[in-house]
Amino acid sequence: MTDIIQLLPDHVANQIAAGEVVQRPASVVKELLENAIDANATEIKLIIKDAGKTLVQVIDNGKGMSVTDARLSFERHATSKIQSAEDLFQLNTKGFRGEALASIAAIAHVELKTKRPEDELGTAIEIEGSKVKSQEVSVTPTGTSVAVKNLFFNIPARRNFLKSDAVELRHITDEFHRVALAHPNIAFAFYHNGSELFNLPQENYRQRVVHIFGNKTNEKLVPVEEETEVLKISGFVGKPEYSKKTRSEQFFFVNQRFIKSPYLNHAISAAFEGLLKDGYHPSYFLNLTVDPKTIDINIHPTKTEIKFDDEHTLYAILRSAVKHSLGQFNIAPVLDFEHQNSFNTPYSYKDKAGSAPTIEVDRSFNPFADDSVSTKQSPAKTNFKQTKTTSWESLYVGLESKGNNSNDNFSEVTFESDAKTESIFSDASIETSKTTFQLQQKYIVSTLKSGMLVIDQNRAHQRVLYENFLKHITIKEATSQQLLFPLQLHFTPSESNIIKDLKEDLEYTGFVFSNVTEEDITITGVPVGVPESEVSIILEQLISDVENDVPDANFSATDLLAKSMAKSLAIKNGQTLNSTEQEHLVNSLFACKEPNVSPTNRITFVTLSVDDIEKKFM
Known about the structure:
Blueprint: H1 10-21, H2 25-38, E1 43-49, E2 55-60, H3 67-72, H4 100-106, E3 109-115, E4 122-128, E5 131-138, E6 143-149, H5 156-160, H6 165-182, E7 187-192, E8 195-200, H7 205-213, E9 221-227, E10 232-238, E11 250-254, E12 257-259, H8 262-271, E13 284-289, E14 295-296, E15 307-308, H9 311-328, H10 384-392, H11 399-403, H12 406-411, H13 416-431, E16 436-439, E17 443-447, E18 451-456, H14 457-475, E19 480-490, H15 493-509, E20 512-516, E21 520-527, H16 535-549, H17 554-569, H18 579-590, E22 605-609, H19 610-616
Parallel strand pairs: 1-7, 11-13
Antiparallel strand pairs: 1-2, 2-6, 3-4, 3-6, 4-5, 7-8, 9-10, 10-13, 11-12, 14-15, 16-17, 17-18, 18-22, 19-21, 20-21
Helix pairs in contact: 1-4, 2-6, 8-9, 14-15, 14-17, 14-18, 16-17
């Protein structure tokens, strides 16, 4: 038999590597930004067109590359960061595998222009699908410019898997945030289709967080500082009252590298224990500095997951540091009685002595004196007995005749308990005739000709609301109730953009927006039946669902909006319903087009036939 194992050609191997490294345009953005940082750049520009599908360009003012280095940078496993395997545990830079540029060049058109400070002329290289098209001398500024065009041009299947521009731009923005937060000492600019999205100067860490997430973020931050032999912690956590349903503001940086760590995230959640409502997550922007020997970064192609030598120690230190900061800045409850400011002595009275209060009494006042008698009249001429009788006896006029007949008197006495007793018995008579019952404040039980029906009240109400909202959005007619006072809500710029994208559909459901800016949203009307206190919860849930489900088409966005609002407004398990509400919910459910399942495709009701019940007694 002939040999069947053979070495892959370089261009095929590069495409396979690209499948691990480059998953979407955001992956290219991450790799190019990290290369610019490794080049000691102080100013970095990110230019995007069509959410990265047409162009991803990164321009930096770093140290640039020589002619030889520029050419070798596109070879597989060509790197300047490591010389031996031991160097993998002494890494202080971003990229070290030498796969990024080679993988990107295998699936896109790449133009590289670079020049070192000591060189008069730079180098320009053009590569298409791992093939070098040209390499020549070029006049270019000091630094490096990498333009990646037509991503996945030679892999149409991968290009078809890309989402809509809005979704891909959201992923690119997330990667930009992660890199920009890790390096506040570098100036960043971000442009999309010719418009400026971010322009971040060199600044301190707090200013960088505020510039990215909005001015309102400044009042939400609580500083965290801790330094031990194994770990140094710096950064901020958000106050508990500003917690969110999404995890969009959770950032861990280990040695200036963004990571995802469920274990360390649990340490933060443990520090916030008892301070957050169910379903809400804390915000944090924490920088962890550890010895590079104690971590292993080389376990995932995207380098967002790392291993620690001693996770338990880091967990304990992180948890205690966050808890200490929350207590130090009076965020966590303390065992102390707070006094009211109204009890404090005003400054204008600080040096004044207190004066005893005086009471004036009218000693000539007589409650039994007759008003008709003049106060100037002599007491000797006043008939006190007659005056006294006419004054107080007048209060009992008409009672003597009623008092003569004791039976009539008691027959007219009514007690509140009588009315309550009657209502209880009347309710009981109704209970015997109603056809629905509530079980465990979660299920509604109703009778059928063939047996029994058990309905999950939460899922059933979700289905009813879901179809109503879909109908309103489709018909574009919904009733809105105006608010007496406009409701102003604060969001981050990225969250506001999500609301802007869904603003038209939200208006079809009954919301009325008077002002939508990058950070503030003013609402003057809400759908009928939606409490004002629920509006912020509904929008937060909607933002969370959009970020997690990332809808692609307009239909999906409309569907997601209806699902999210139905989930927020549906009757919760544990809520008591009277017989009228139970029957109305049952009738509304079976008037739906698909009463069998909830909007999330979960069963809404089950039926038990008489035969099934009889089998239980056999």
